[in-house]
Amino acid sequence: MEIEYKLKNLRVKVRQNSKKIMDDVLERHVPKTSLKNKSKTEICVFCSSTSNITKEHVLPKWIFQKHTEDFFITDTNESEQTYNKTTIPACADCNNNLLANIENYIIRILKNTDLKMSFFSNQEIENIIRWLEIIEYKFQILEIRRKFTKMKSADYNSYLADIPISIMRKSIDYSPNKAVAQIRIAQKRITTKSKDLNINSLLILSTKNKNFHFFHTMNDFIFLELPEYKIALFYFYSKTFKNIETAQKEAIKIVNKVY
Questions:
Q1: Measured between alpha carbons, how far is 44 from 89 in angstroms, rounded to an integer?
Q2: How far apart are the C-alpha atoms of 60 and 160, rounded to whole Å?
Q3: Within a domain: residue 219?
Q4: Dihedral over Cα of 115, 4, 198, 189: its sign
Q5: Residue 211 covered by a domain
Q6: Taking the chain, what is the end-to-end CA distance rounded to the nearest angstrom?
Q7: Which domain does 123 fall in, by range?
Q8: Contact indicator for 227, 207 with CB cutoff of 8 Å
Q9: Which of 194, 241, 196 shows the shortest CA–CA distance to 7?
Q10: According to the model, what pLDDT value does residue 157 have?
C-alpha cells in the first residue's frame, strides 16, 4: 500500500537525520547551548533539509478548517495561539508529499467508516496511532521554539524572555535536558514501526457534537473531536493497557475533568 511506503519513508528520514535535527534544536532554542551567531536558515524538522522550507501546521488544517480563528491556551504561560498560525518548519517534500499523503489517508478512512456499521481494521488503527504520534512530535518541536515571555497573570520578567515554553513546564522541573529528552522520545515513537503494544491506548468513539474540540497534554494524551466524521479520538502517548476497558475508564476520568 502507498500509505505504508509513505510512513516508512518518513520513519527513515527522521531516523537518519535525528542528530542533525536535535543539534539544530539545541543550538537554536536551548539556553546555554544556543549560539549568538546561530544560523537564520531554518531546517526541516523531519529530514533536516534547508531547501524549500514551508510552514507545516501542527494540527492539520483540515481538522479546524471551519474554525480558523479558534485558538488553544498554553497552560504554562496562559498564552493564546490560533490553530491557523501554529506551524513548524518542514521542507516542501516532507510537507506536501509525505505528510499530506498521510493526512489524505486518514481523511479517507475516517470518511469511509461509519461506526454504526463497521470499525477500523488493526492496520488502520495502527496508522491512526502513527498519525497522532506525528502530531505529538510536532507539538514538542513547537514548544521548544516558542518563548515563554510572560504569564497573563504576572508581570514581565526579562530573564524568561528567551526561555522556551517547553522548559517552563512544571512536569519536567524546568529542566532543559528533560525538555530535549521529551523531543527525543517523540522522535523515537515516530521511527518505531510496530504499534502492536499501543492498540489499546487508542479509543475511537462516536460523537454527535457539532463542534470541533481538542485538548492535549505533552507526552501524555491527546483528544480530538472531529464532528465532520462523527468520530472522537483519545490516545495515550506514554501508556499501554492490557485491555481497552481499562484505557476507557482512565480516559473518561480525564475527559470529565477537562472537557
A1: 5
A2: 30
A3: no
A4: negative
A5: no
A6: 37
A7: 2-195
A8: yes
A9: 194
A10: 46
CB within 8 Å of 23: residues ≥ 6 apart: none
Q: Is the pLDDT of residue 70 over 90?
A: no
In a domain, 207, yes or no: no
**Nearest of 229, 247, 255 to residue 115 by alpha carbon:** 229
pLDDT tens across 156-196, in order?
A: 444 344 444 444 455 656 577 888 899 999 999 999 999 99
Distance CA 190, CA 200 (A): 18
Report how far residue 170's alpha carbon sits from residue 207's, in angstroms, rounded to the nearest whole number: 33
Q: How many residues make up the chain in this entry?
A: 259
Domain membership flag for residue 13: yes
In 3D, which of 210, 56, 231, 212 has the Cα closest to residue 141?
A: 56
**Cβ-proximal residues to 126 (8 Å cutoff; 6+ apart), any chain:** 195, 196, 198, 199
Our count of domains for the chain comes to 1
Is the pLDDT confidence value at 52 over 90?
Answer: yes
pTM for the full predicted model = 0.86
Q: Cα separation of 2 and 100, whole Å?
A: 12
